[in-house]
Amino acid sequence: MAEQFGYSVRSLSRLFQQKLLVSFLQYLKLCRMIKAMEYLLEIDKRISEIAYQTGYNSLSAFSNTFYELVHMRPMDFRSSVNR
To answer: Coiled-coil region(s) at which residues (predicted)?
Structure first.
């Protein structure tokens, strides 16, 4: 992404930290979780499918990251919004 905008990786990271008060990696993680929440609203998608679609190579890494940010597991989130 840095290359696309003509920045070095370090410069892009520094710019994110200065302007948004969050690291680029944290921003990316948040974007992935927001997209995962959107996908979880679609009942027909399996959670493992959502994990891979949002850039995670393992279901456990996805589930742990989701829990870290949302304070509930993906299945619990899905159940709570689809009642």
So the answer is: none
